Amino acid sequence: MSFLRACALSDLQEDVPKRVDLNGVPVSIVRTEEGVFAINDTCSHANVSLSEGEVEDCMIECWLHGSSFDLRTGKPSGLPATKPVAVYPVKIEGDDVLVSVNQES
């Protein structure tokens, strides 16, 4: 599994998503009280950017229709989304946030 640098840990504000592009994959990086998470940035229901939504209780909400996705699993909490979005392994090395988009978890 190969990891790519997504951003600096110091660039992340708690519960504020940051969109990055890793090898053509849109990824939302989110720092919460529980840790740092990487989730595919495209809502499985409406094909819009999740990083434009709000984060609360380790869930990211799609701003368009209100579906929320668990940052740990990618599973939606309810309608209108029914399909999960991919989540990716994260490693922290110093101030670097590293993400592997090659193998979904």
UniProtKB/TrEMBL annotation:
This entry's Enzyme Commission designation comes to 1.14.12.19
Give the SUPFAM superfamilies listed for this entry. ISP domain
Q: Name one Pfam family in it.
A: Rieske
Q: Where is the Rieske domain?
A: 4-99
Q: CDD domains from the entry?
A: Rieske_RO_ferredoxin
Keywords tagged on the record: 2Fe-2S, Dioxygenase, Iron, Iron-sulfur, Metal-binding, Oxidoreductase
Q: Enumerate the GO terms in the molecular function aspect.
A: 3-phenylpropionate dioxygenase activity
Q: Which NCBIfam families match?
A: PRK09965.1
Name of the molecule in the record: Bifunctional 3-phenylpropionate/cinnamic acid dioxygenase ferredoxin subunit
Q: Source species, please?
A: Kitasatospora cathayae
